[in-house]
Amino acid sequence: MRVRIEHETHYEYDSPIRALIQILRMTPRSYAGQHVRRWRIEPNIDGHLRQTEDALGNIVHHFSAESGARSLSLQVSGEVETTDTGGVVKGGVTRAPDVYFLRETALTAPDEALRVFAREASDFKPDDVLGSMHRLNNRINAEVTFDTAPTQVVTTANEAFAMRSGVCQDLTHIFVACARHLGVPARYVSGYFVRIDGVVDQDAGHAWAEAQVPGLGWVGFDPANGISTTDAHVRVAVGLDYLGAAPIRGSRWGGGGETMAVKLTVEDAGGSIQSQQQNQG
Amino acid sequence: MLSRTASNLFWLFRYTERADFVARILDATMRLAALPTSYNEERNEWNSALASAGNVALFKQHYDTVNEDTVRDFLAFSPHNPSSIRNCLASARINARAVRTALTAEMWETINDAWLELKNSRGNDMDRDAFSDFLEFTKTVSLHFDGSAYRTMLRNDAYYFTRLGVSIERADNTARILDVKYHVLLPESERVGGSLDYFQWTTILREVQAHTAYHWVYREAVKPWHVADLLILNRQMPRSLACCYESLVRHLDLIADIYGRRGPSQRLAATTSAQLASSRIEEVFGHGLHEWVGKFIVENNQLGAEIAEQYLI
Description:
Chain A is an alpha+beta fold. Chain A has helices spanning 112-122, 129-143, 157-163, 168-181, 242-245; strands at residues 2-13, 17-27, 34-43, 48-53, 59-66, 71-82, 145-146, 165-166, 186-193, 206-213, 217-222, 227-228, 233-239, 248-254, 258-268. Chain A is globular. Chain B has two domains: 1-153, no CATH class; 163-313, no CATH class. Chain B contains 15 helices and no strands. Chain B is globular and about 60 Å long. The interface between A and B is medium-sized, with 12 and 12 residues.
């Protein structure tokens, strides 16, 4: 599938800013399942934009500016050619050993309720990790309602699970927390998703999980959709949790309060055109 | 465009690129051979030149011994060796004549003049100076020809096919050098103060025209793993495998845009390019340089076959 992405993040500040720095994990890497045809990051104020790589091999841009600007627009646009690999990630970067992805983080440390759920939902069998992960994926999809209202970016897996609701970010945290509790290395993936269900006014970008399955390597599981990843998914960054893969993190000096607006369209450039209004979630 | 025309353009540029490569191998080997024997008791540089440039089995059918004269004759002039400089330029000229109308006047004149000049050349009775001049002439032809294409050709599918020819041939040539000389690049082969190794490494750099580039990039003495890094993964280096594959991906994408269709060659090139872009030289050494390069050569040939299947026949 040829996926065309236009992602605009717009900030309005109460007063002119003095300086700002942002870390952008917004550039996908090519691997066997996806080929980046073109990709651009275009901020609308002058500054330094430097590309580097983080410890996990994600492409990272550092954007820093000293400016009297009252607003900032980051325009990210590109085209990615994807193929359906049945969820298996072949030829991706490997910078960290698999066991690194067993590490608990503040957002994904499971409490007792989630641990019980992990064992029970996956019916875990060490000789059938793939089946166990599919069961876990389906149960999360069935039990946790997709709802943008109650959760925020700082909501932990436990809190979201207790409410039985959340956005793709929360569902992914729940999946990752459960998988790691079962001893399966798992990681958080942020990216883009071409909606096939025709829902256009979706209030979230996309996130899903990858689990390390013996014999197959990393396999993508999308608990928000209850499926393995397909050619509708564009992988951008991986991390232990949302904070490690977040599209934009930054801080600034001056400017007072801010409002942020995100406009995102993800469309199949070869087929019908759909658009989404999204925040990363 | 007729696939026949595409094929002629593709091979025309493969042949001129190959002529340049063979000339560089001979040039670098003559430098190495000119070193005093005390640096190198084994004196196998002509063997290794032969192996880098190709067909050892064919050589053995026509010559009994491997020495400067026979290797020079085989690689530069032999009518029996399809990759000899003379045959490369002759084949290039045949391909060029077949697609004369797809070329610009500058390109045609360069390749035709080269062929006329070559017809009058004396062959292997040249002394070293004259042979050096001949190698210089070959390199100039390639430079002139490729430069004319870059400066004068329309940027359409014809031009993109010429880039595919250049890039796939270059990737193959660089990989062959690595395949033949991998043992001098392995970290464990480093002998303290081994001046021979230094000359071997610089020879590799000269063969891919990277001697100055190396010092720009690494700013230190020649070290084998840096040499491997430069030739395999450095995207700035025009003969590195990563750079060749970037060019292949870009031009295959452009061709796919023109024809509105993507196929196996696009997928294969994109996959290999993504691997090169995300690899590190430690990983390549971890897999074993020799195995890694061997696999690459097979994949590169596979890509050549896919391009032929998709566009050239």
